[in-house]
């Protein structure tokens, strides 16, 4: 890990944290060609791309109820029970986010307000293969169902045998997703956005994917809405010298094992603690990590220790970084919550490790990355609803104000706007 003092890091933070994600002009051209292919050829293109990229020739895109039941049985009762409990935790949390239509009357004959409606149709992208995450199924589908979305379609790439990872199908059944298609990559995003013979187009696409999926989401944005463009994962741990270095190292590695470009960051007021954490990271990688090569590269290339003189500097640096996940390993950690301005999810105290949020507690694990927590939020029920303004004036209420409205309109040179209200009282 690379170590910097606050004085060294603060002026050049953006440069230090910049990931070299490479030139993606060729990727974009490939994605645009795939999108055009799906728009022109529909299902035929989906079958051909699935054979080309996933190594299997399908007879049908749809996952059958029999396949879902087979997967449910294969996963086994113990894991099913864990996923069901996690799903209930996620559901309970997101039910707190529900908004309802509201109105008020600022004067006689006037009603104003906001009408809340759910999106009609949403597409859920779920990675497949080695990156099969049933937790993503739960996190992305349950808020949509709680919001009242009329229909959900889940897309996920099949394996070479033409089957879907059973954990993904079991999670879908637990969440309540019944429409599942065997298609992934940029071609799946194109099908969701533009539709094919078998795929009814959606209003919004959510869910993570590789660089081809992320690029496709960028390209179809505007035709449909998207949740976010997720970058590599990151965790920031803020601690003083009293925290447990074993805990801190384990939590940093929980993100480092995701991806060679994942970013584990320690912000501390104690250089000695930073050194202890770094030594413990090396020990834990060598001792018992199955993805040690990935974790080691992440720590080496994108791991940072920032040593600050005090907690004021530590929180200032953390807010400037705006991490996806932030752990506060301080005594009475809740007392510091108001000092956090920018973070996707905030984990308070030594017994609130980041994986608790990934899988089980209930808050959503689809979070803003790469500093976007400065202006965006975790996925939630509010991402699956939209708001319409409500206006109602009686004749008397409009008569009281129509001349002001007409004057305002004429100040902008919009005579027809002015006449629209004036004609009602001629």
The number of strands is 14
Through-space gap between termini? 76 Å
Give the C-level CATH assignment of the largest domain.
Alpha Beta
Low-pLDDT segments, ≥5 res: none
Average pLDDT reading: 95
Query: Structural class of the helix and strand makeup?
Result: alpha/beta
The proportion of residues forming helix, as a percent range, comes to 40-55%
Q: How is the biggest beta sheet arranged? A: 6 strands, parallel
Number of H- or I-type helical stretches? 17
Indicate the radius of gyration in whole angstroms. 25 Å
Assembly form of the protein: single chain
Q: Under CATH, the topology of the largest domain is which?
A: Rossmann fold
CATH superfamily descriptor of the largest domain: Nitrogenase molybdenum iron protein domain
Strand order of the largest sheet: 1-11-10-9-12-13
* Shape annotation: globular
Beta-sheet strand percentage?
15-25%
Family: Belongs to the histidinol dehydrogenase family.
Active site: 324 (proton acceptor), 325 (proton acceptor)
Binding site for Zn(2+): 255, 258, 358, 417
Catalytic activity: L-histidinol + 2 NAD(+) + H2O = L-histidine + 2 NADH + 3 H(+)
């Amino acid at each position: 890990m690379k170590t910097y003092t606050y004085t060294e890091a603060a002026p050049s933070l953006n440069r230090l944290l910049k990931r070299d994600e490479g030139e993606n002009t060729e990727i974009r051209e490939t994605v645009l060609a795939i999108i055009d292919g799906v728009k022109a050829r529909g299902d035929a293109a989906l079958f051909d791309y699935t054979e080309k990229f996933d190594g299997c020739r399908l007879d049908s895109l749809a996952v059958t109820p029999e396949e879902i039941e087979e997967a449910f049985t294969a996963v086994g009762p113990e894991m099913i029970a864990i996923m069901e409990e996690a799903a209930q935790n996620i559901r309970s949390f997101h039910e707190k986010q529900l908004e309802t239509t509201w109105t008020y009357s600022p004067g006689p004959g006037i009603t104003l307000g906001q009408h809340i409606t759910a999106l009609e149709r949403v597409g859920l992208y779920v990675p497949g293969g080695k990156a099969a995450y049933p937790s993503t199924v739960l996190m992305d589908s349950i808020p949509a169902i709680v919001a009242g979305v009329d229909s959900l379609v889940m897309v996920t790439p099949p394996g070479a045998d033409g089957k879907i990872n059973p954990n993904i199908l079991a999670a879908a059944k637990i969440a309540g997703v019944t429409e599942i298609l065997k298609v992934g990559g940029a071609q799946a995003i194109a099908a969701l956005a533009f539709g094919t013979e078998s795929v009814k187009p959606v209003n919004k696409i959510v869910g993570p994917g590789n660089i081809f999926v992320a690029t496709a989401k960028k390209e179809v944005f505007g035709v449909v809405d998207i949740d976010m463009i997720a970058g590599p994962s990151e965790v920031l741990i803020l601690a003083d010298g009293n925290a447990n270095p074993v805990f801190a190292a384990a939590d940093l590695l929980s993100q480092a094992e995701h991806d060679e470009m994942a970013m584990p960051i320690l912000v501390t007021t104690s250089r000695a603690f930073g050194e202890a954490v770094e030594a413990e990271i090396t020990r834990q990688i060598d001792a018992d990590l199955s993805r040690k090569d990935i974790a080691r590269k992440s720590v080496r290339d994108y791991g940072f220790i920032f040593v600050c003189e005090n907690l004021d500097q530590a929180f200032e640096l953390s807010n400037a970084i705006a991490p996806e996940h932030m752990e506060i390993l301080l005594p009475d950690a809740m007392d510091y919550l108001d000092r956090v301005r920018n973070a996707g999810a905030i984990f308070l105290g030594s017994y609130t490790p980041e994986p608790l949020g990934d899988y089980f507690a209930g808050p959503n694990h689809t979070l803003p990355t790469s500093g976007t927590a400065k202006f965006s939020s975790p996925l939630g029920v509010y991402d699956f609803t939209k708001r319409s303004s409500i206006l109602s004036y009686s004749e008397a209420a409009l008569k009281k104000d129509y001349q002001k409205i007409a004057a305002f309109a004429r100040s902008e040179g919009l005579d027809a706007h002015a006449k629209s209200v004036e004609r009602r009282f001629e």
